[in-house]
Specification:
With 363 residues, chain A is an alpha+beta fold. Chain A has 12 helices and 17 strands. The termini of chain A are far apart. Chain B is elongated, with a radius of gyration of 23 Å. Classes of the chains: A alpha+beta (363), B alpha+beta (132).
């Protein structure tokens, strides 16, 4: 009888031990998803109490929503009033009378203009009218009737960031065809904003993902944060990589915002030179080393590489100072820069077997 | 329990090899049962989120249609023996439906207009977040 009691006690102790071990093993990881910027915002915070992590993410989401309202290119913010960018666009269209803008928007426009010049106009947030013509300034994308004459006229009007004149806290445009759409900039800007806020709040470990653009702070416990890169034509990741402290990653793809017309895919990334959506590329991923505007670069830098012709992609990346990048063309052939290739762990069996896909390593 | 086993300590000396074997085997079995029955971590599941809330997680080893209400209407999520997909969605572009079957841990399908996301979760996450 005693023996049985002992046995039971030992077994019970082991059971309790296993149970508490499992409970202790629960990670201090807070993970939340929300919808802002018309896309999914996914925030992970490691090593903070749940209550604090929740306060921090609520603050970030609140800031994101405010930024979204301020920078939205086409949606009125409550009461049918345009946001700050909407008001500026209306002023641009009406002629060259300066209007007052916030210091924040002035700084954004200065930075976006620098990046546009650096990309020789391939990154061009001034082509809002073209983007609207293609139907990508709506919540849902339906095929549009392609108005070739209108597109040609919009290209000929040559809206450029350099047409915008900033003087102190006022702005005007010397070209009435300028319509700002910061769709390729705002999410990256928001990443930098969130990262800087979290660091100021002494958060050591976090991962912020806005619509696929990701920035890392610290790491996930004793391992670096790991991110997957989506395959443009499969519901799966093609590769994973470690995203170390301060690094950011961004992808431009033809698979998130597009419509099909007569069997052809028209994506939201428009070549400012032709006025037509880019059709030679499925996805471009860029990886950005730690720097103050890593988030912005992760958003912006993939666009010019995406738009550039296949033979110009490597030189366009070099022009932008991008070392880590990957390109998938319309046949899902992969070209990856040497620097990025060293960091990728391929998940896709077709890549591992080297079937159907051609892996080209760039200098 | 600690004190009671302590007071019976001399009794351990009388335990035979078979007794120890019983104890060890029981411990192994209990550990195994804890891992498999008390936790679902090893069974592949689909986690459904609506807006910013986790709606539910379902075992993938079943045949089942789940209707969930998103921000614009009802979506039907189809689970079929280890895989899951959006079967019907009220959204215009149907990108979520066109994504097709999700089969592996970490795969996600998101319906932005309806604010519903599916994520396959299992014992180990192959990555913390997805770049797209």
């Amino acid at each position: 009888m005693r023996k049985w009691l002992i046995r039971l006690a030992v077994i019970a102790l082991i059971a309790v031990g296993v149970f508490s071990f499992r409970t202790l093993k629960q990670e201090p990881l807070y993970h939340t998803q929300s919808y802002v910027f018309g896309t999914l915002v996914d925030i992970s915070i490691y090593g903070e109490t749940e209550a604090r992590a929740k306060l921090l993410t609520d603050h970030i989401l609140h800031d994101f929503q405010a930024l979204h309202d301020q920078l939205h290119a086409w949606k009125p913010v409550g009461n049918n009033q345009p946001g700050e960018l909407g008001a500026l666009n209306a002023a641009f269209a009406n002629g060259s009378t300066p209007i007052t803008i916030s210091p924040k928007l002035a700084a954004i426009l200065t930075d976006a203009t620098d990046l546009s010049l650096k990309s020789q106009g391939l990154f061009n947030p001034a082509i809002g009218h073209l983007i609207g013509t293609w139907g990508f300034q709506r919540d849902e994308f339906t095929a549009v009737t392609i108005d070739d004459a209108k597109i040609k006229a919009l290209v000929k009007a040559n809206p450029r960031m350099a047409d915008i004149v900033l003087k102190g806290n006022s702005a005007y445009s010397t070209n009435t065809s300028v319509k700002l759409d910061l769709g390729g900039y705002a999410k990256g800007y928001a990443l930098d904003m969130a990262a800087s806020y979290l660091r100021k709040q002494q958060v050591k470990n976090a991962l912020v993902n806005i619509g696929g653009n990701i920035i890392a702070i610290g790491q996930h416990g004793d391992k670096p944060w790991r991110v997957g890169i989506q395959h443009p034509r499969k519901p799966a990741a093609i590769a994973t990589l470690a995203l170390a402290d301060g690094w950011a990653i961004g992808t431009s793809g033809d698979y998130q915002r597009y419509f099909m017309l007569d069997g052809k895919r028209y994506c939201h990334i428009i070549d400012p030179r032709s006025g037509y959506p880019v059709q030679h590329t499925q996805a471009v991923t860029v990886l950005i080393p730690p720097q103050n505007n890593a988030g912005v670069l992760s958003d912006v830098a993939s666009k010019p590489i995406f738009i550039a012709a296949p033979e110009d992609k490597a030189s366009t990346a070099a022009m932008l100072g991008i070392q880590y990048f990957m390109v998938m063309d319309q046949q899902s052939n992969i070209a990856v820069s040497k620097a990025l290739a060293q960091k990728l762990d391929w998940l896709d069996p077709e890549v591992n077997n080297n079937r159907h896909v051609k892996l080209v390593t760039l200098p | 329990m600690l004190s009671s086993s302590h007071s019976h300590k001399p009794a351990f000396r009388h335990l035979l090899a078979g007794d120890w074997l019983t104890i060890i085997l029981s411990a192994i079995i209990i550990t195994y049962l804890f891992q498999t029955l008390w936790s679902h971590e090893h069974a592949a599941k689909v986690q459904i989120r609506i807006g910013d809330k986790v709606h539910a997680a379902y075992d993938l080893n079943q045949q089942r249609d789940i209707t969930v209400r998103g921000s614009i209407g009802d979506a039907v999520i189809h689970i079929s023996q280890g895989k899951v997909r959006f079967a019907k969605s009220p959204c215009h572009n149907q990108y979520c439906v066109h994504q097709g079957w999700l089969t592996h841990n970490g795969q996600v399908a998101i319906c932005l207009p309806n604010q519903i996301s599916l994520e396959l979760i299992g014992a180990q996450k192959p990555y913390d977040s997805l770049n797209y």
